[in-house]
Amino acid sequence: MTKSKKICFVIMGFGKKTDLSTGKTLDLDKTYKNIIKPAVEKAGLQCVRADEIQDSGLIDKSMYALLMHADLVVADISTYNPNAIYELGVRHAVRPYSTLIIKEQEGTIPFDLNHNRIFHYAHLGDDIGVDEAKRCKDALVEMIESLLTNELIDSPLYDYIQDIEPPKLTDKEYHRIIGDLSAKEESIFAISERAKHCMVDSDFIEAARLWEKAEGLVPNEEYFTQQHALAKYKSKDPTEISSLTDALQIIEKLNPDGDTNDPETLGLTGAIYKRMWQTTGDNEYLKRAIHYYGKGFQIRRDYYNGENYALCLNIAASIETDVEVKTYYKISAKKARQDILEILAYLSEEESPQSINKWPYATLANCYFGIGDNKEGLKYEKVYLDLVETEWEKESYFESKKMLIKLIEGN
Question: Domain 185-254: which CATH class?
Fold first, then answer.
């Protein structure tokens, strides 16, 4: 550990998380990489997130030691990750000051936290805008410097009960627990970053191996399980149907048949079943795809699930022999697309695209193609293609578009 540098411990979720109060999915890694870490390092501190603790076997002990000892804690409570909220409570219990709470600007704030000073930032979903990242970084640097200089009480516990003393952790015990934080070669953060690069390069076999490793280190982290399932599903290794079966077993850890309302889990389960139908021709898999996509759309009004729900309904209509059921499928697909266009109407009001989240534009394009408005479909398709980075994402889009156009023309 670099003894000359003060330590900032960052409390937050990893990867993509959905705020259930808004239905908005945020890539929290982008918040860390684009706002928190550069601001902390510019302020002269060593920045450590829980997934950067090298020895995963000591992660619980290390977490408590850092919550007690860190010169600064930054707690991002966006999406109300339960681990982050719990760790913030521990920090407030053991340190009277030097805790900074930040949150994405949308959604409500729990009663127990709404009296705390909270720094807000705007998140686009897949990323942080360049101007917003700069604004937040500059503002956070000033706040950090002020917190470390003034030592004003920011813990509600020590504010309300002023005669208690915080617990102590000796330097010897701290260093025994933490070890060398500068050695991060096998940290979860490093593993997940390598996995993301493999996904971009379409090396899904290696990506699946890395996501499985990350999942094993943090078994309760849904994001790693979701990415493991996605990479395995895309790998087609050793065969396509075996990889899909394996992916299904992985995603079932998140209980898509139970009370989950996470749109990522439901959408991925639907995608696996849709691909199983395409691979085997077994219509039972199509019915299951409709079920999971429909659940994700109806519960969370998630546009990705809605778009695929509509597509699968059109597929079901094309192979249905009962006239009344066929009509029901078609009407339901049309209604779903109309609902999605209302959900994403704010994007159509922009003079030029302001979001760098590509998926809403892909969804808009397919919805317009689905209702026969090719002009608007091509308009949003161009926006999507300008934003997309990987070949496999382009291939997936055009595969769905080709299927959709064929179904629409067949009707």
Answer: mainly alpha
